[in-house]
Q: What sequence folds into this?
């Protein structure tokens, strides 16, 4: 069981058996990107409740990803921290990094596409392995 203070929306991810801890960094960033997208849409529409909920879920996923021991002293931790900083700046301040809704969506969509490709390759490998084991 992982102990990460403040987790309210994704409590099931605290369990060691949760799929979150088996996801690649690319998959985790893709999932975070879904919440970033929801935050952006809610902010544009002026729906403060949906914006608050999506933003809290996004921050929880960032916290979970940054707490993942696999990423210590590796590129994903830096990527998670930097992405969190840039997204926060864009959502709450003046976008000093020059990000736009569209640029953030493109950034996270790329991770979603890569995550889908990773899953497709893993399924193909399992299928090949199963066929190999059957012979």
A:
């Amino acid at each position: 069981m992982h102990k990460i203070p403040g987790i309210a929306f994704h409590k099931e991810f605290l369990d060691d058996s949760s799929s979150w801890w088996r996801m690649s960094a690319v998959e985790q960033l893709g999932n975070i990107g879904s919440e970033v997208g929801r935050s952006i849409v809610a902010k544009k529409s002026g729906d403060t409740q949906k914006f608050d909920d999506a933003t809290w879920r996004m921050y929880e996923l960032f916290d979970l990803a940054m707490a993942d021991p696999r990423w210590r002293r590796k590129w994903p931790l830096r990527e998670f921290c930097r992405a969190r900083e840039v997204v926060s700046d864009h959502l709450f301040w003046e976008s000093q990094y020059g990000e736009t809704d569209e640029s953030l969506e493109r950034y996270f969509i790329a991770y979603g596409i890569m995550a889908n490709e990773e899953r497709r390759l893993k399924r193909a490998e399992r299928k090949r392995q199963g066929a190999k084991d059957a012979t």
